[in-house]
Write a structure and sequence with these properties.
Helix content is about 40%, strand content about 20%. It has a 5-stranded parallel β-sheet with strand order 3-2-4-1-5, sandwiched between helices. It has a 5-stranded mixed β-sheet with strand order 6-7-10-8-9. The termini are far apart. Bound molecules: S-adenosylmethionine.
Length: about 280
């Protein structure tokens, strides 16, 4: 029987943020493939896990994937971890997972922390839908071009950003999205110097003008124009119709205004709702 590849999420700061299942699997597998073995030793020593480690990072992932695949075929179970959070999310992992799946090896997620979901969960920005863009390009022109291309994105934007580039990126956000665009900056989540900043892009520029340290997630709220709520249309129609005796055209006009959804689409929903009632 071939072994299983486990993709194991580890803490993004606080060592207590690891699941019981992750600890058990890390103890039971034949080998742990880690992005940086020295870094992961801290976590593994903390939990007295003595499983052998091999390095699997962006520079050796292809070659390492072939070796790990051979071990998996021989029946060994393997766990993949990264320095922090969920492997393969802006981290090595995709190549190994793709290679194992193509070879018919079972791949199981052992879910847990990730900076993107942790930041979204506390930022206070719309998060039913979001667009995770990973790291912004390091080069200024490429970064600004990407920000410009995403300006009308109707979902909350989430980026990983390096601390020494944050001030420059916030300046670009303020210029391209306007100083009033709400943003959030989650810094050092789950760690001693955790900070969660919420405010406008202009306020963020002032707040982060000096030296910034630590690990950072930058979140940008959708633009006003782009903030449509199609899922809110049926409830809004019913609420308004129950509250006021309005002619259909006025009902549709008001709901379109409140939800940001085009009148034609609201009218279609109105017809569907009327049809259901009849
Ligand atoms: N795989 C990881 C995950 O699931 O979150 C992300 C790895 S990526 C190489 C590292 C980036 O994640 C950091 O540069 C930072 O942008 C973000 N990050 C990681 N830990 C964080 C923390 N505790 N607070 C804020 N951002 C964090």
């Amino acid at each position: 029987m071939p072994g299983t590849l486990y993709i194991v999420a580890t803490p993004i700061g606080n060592l207590e943020d690891i699941t019981l299942r992750a600890l058990r699997i890390l103890k039971e597998v034949a080998v742990i493939a880690a992005e940086d073995t020295r870094h992961s030793c801290k976590l593994l020593n903390h939990y007295a896990i003595a499983t052998p480690l091999v390095a699997c990072h962006e520079h050796n992932e292809e070659a390492r994937a072939a070796q790990l695949l051979a071990r998996l075929r021989d029946g060994a179970d393997v766990a993949l971890i990264s320095d922090a959070g969920t492997p393969a999310i802006s981290d090595p992992g995709y190549v190994l997972v793709r290679c194992c799946r193509a070879a018919g090896i079972r791949v199981e997620a052992v879910p847990g922390p990730s900076a993107v979901t942790a930041a979204l969960s506390v930022a206070g920005l719309p998060c039913h839908r979001f667009a995770f863009e990973g790291f912004l390009p390091a080069k200024k022109k490429a970064r600004e071009d990407l920000l410009l291309a995403l300006r009308d994105e109707p979902r909350t934007l989430v980026f990983y950003e390096a601390p020494h580039r944050l001030a420059e990126t916030l300046g670009a956000v303020a210029r391209i999205y306007g100083v009033e665009r709400p943003v959030a900056v989650a810094r050092e989540l789950t760690k001693k110097h955790e900070e969660l900043f919420s405010g406008t892009a202009g306020e963020a520029c002032v707040h982060f003008a000096g030296e910034v340290r630590g690990e950072i997630v930058l979140l940008i709220a959708p633009g006003e124009k782009a903030q449509t709520e199609p899922e809110a249309v049926p409830a809004a129609l019913q609420r308004l119709a129950a509250a006021e005796d309005l002619p259909p055209a006025e009902l549709v006009r008001r709901v379109a205004k409140a939800t940001g959804v085009a009148r034609g689409a609201v009218y279609q929903e109105y017809l569907r709702w009327k049809g259901e009632k009849a």
